[in-house]
């Protein structure tokens, strides 16, 4: 009867599971009952997917395998429906404000998308050609298949910093424990995020707060998702290198190009942000990423190696560095 109570109280047991493992009759002896054989077999096969998830969901084990702040975050996302609805409303409002203010309305610095100037388009194309500094590096190595457009290093540094940070969000999204709430393709979502950043990340943050669809089958990882997850440390290394290079490039890049010293570049940065819509939008992206990064990592600390949970839990609040730590400490051999 003790096994009956444990199985009945476990949150991992639902109606589907009970069809396969019925409760022990009250008068039955666990030692000789045919049910005891099933239970012993169940507990012996810890390396199967079902048994691992069942044992993980036992209340006492679950409490020991979570840090306090991780449990608190799960309660905030799942426990209080009023709070969850308020968060979703705030996120959808942020999405509306993001699109209206940065794309459509003429009040923010620079030009809205419907009156964009040819010079801005040329700058955007030039920044895209210098994506991750690939073309400048090739030109420096004597390979001139494509000539790098010469732009202000502060503009190039800001652009590549945001894109490098966006690049590292891929493994985080593909290992998000709530990704099954999103019915679309995560491959497409992240690809669009690489071009339009928070235009697509904000809706995902709202949708992932939806109630789980119990009738939906488990999502199968795509090839891109598996690649990004298995290679999370490589993604982190590339993203970190790009972000560090971007900061150094903004300060010291094209030193002989007549762009001045650090003081001149800081002055240009202020002018650039307050006069160009693209640069102004990047500041928004940095602020929003600084919010979404610890939010997502905090809800997925169970994905990192147990010995690194405390480290990642603390570093998640540090922009860029927290995401790098998550990617390097991700337990790719666990069930993600």
UniProtKB/TrEMBL annotation:
Keyword Endoplasmic reticulum set for record: no
Domain of life: Eukaryota
Keywords: Membrane, Transmembrane, Transmembrane helix
Protein name stated in the entry: Uncharacterized protein LOC120281662
Record field: transmembrane: 124-146, 158-176, 188-207, 227-252, 278-297, 317-334
Keyword Transmembrane on entry: yes
Primary gene name: LOC120281662
């Amino acid at each position: 009867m003790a096994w009956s109570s444990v199985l009945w109280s476990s949150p991992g047991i639902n109606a589907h599971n009970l069809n396969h493992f019925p409760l022990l009759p009250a008068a039955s002896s666990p030692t000789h009952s045919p049910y005891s054989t099933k239970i012993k077999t169940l507990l012996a096969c810890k390396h199967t997917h079902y048994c691992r998830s069942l044992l993980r969901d036992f209340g006492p084990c679950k409490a020991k395998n979570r840090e306090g702040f991780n449990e608190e975050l799960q309660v905030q996302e799942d426990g209080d429906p009023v709070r969850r609805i308020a968060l979703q409303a705030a996120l959808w409002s942020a999405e509306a404000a993001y699109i209206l203010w940065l794309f459509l309305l003429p009040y923010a610095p620079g030009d809205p998308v419907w009156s964009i100037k040819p010079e801005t388009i040329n700058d955007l194309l030039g920044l895209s050609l210098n994506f991750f500094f690939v073309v400048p590096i090739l030109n420096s190595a004597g390979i001139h298949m494509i000539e790098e457009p010469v732009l202000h290093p502060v503009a190039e540094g800001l652009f590549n910093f945001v894109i490098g940070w966006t690049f590292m969000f891929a493994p985080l999204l593909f290992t998000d424990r709530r990704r099954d709430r999103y019915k679309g393709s995560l491959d497409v979502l992240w690809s669009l995020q690489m071009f339009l950043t928070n235009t697509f990340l904000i809706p995902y943050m709202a949708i992932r707060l939806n109630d789980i669809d119990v009738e939906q089958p488990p999502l199968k990882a795509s090839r891109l998702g598996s690649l990004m997850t298995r290679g999370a440390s490589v993604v982190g290394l590339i993203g970190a290198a790009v972000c560090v290079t971007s900061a150094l490039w903004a300060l010291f890049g094209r030193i002989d190009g007549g762009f001045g010293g650090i003081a001149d570049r800081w002055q240009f940065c202020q002018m650039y942000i307050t006069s160009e819509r693209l640069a102004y939008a990047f500041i928004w992206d940095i602020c929003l990423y600084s919010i979404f990064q610890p939010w997502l990592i905090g809800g997925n600390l169970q994905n990192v190696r147990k010995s690194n949970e405390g480290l990642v839990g603390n570093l998640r609040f540090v922009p860029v560095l927290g995401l790098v730590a998550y990617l390097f400490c991700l337990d790719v051999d666990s069930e993600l």
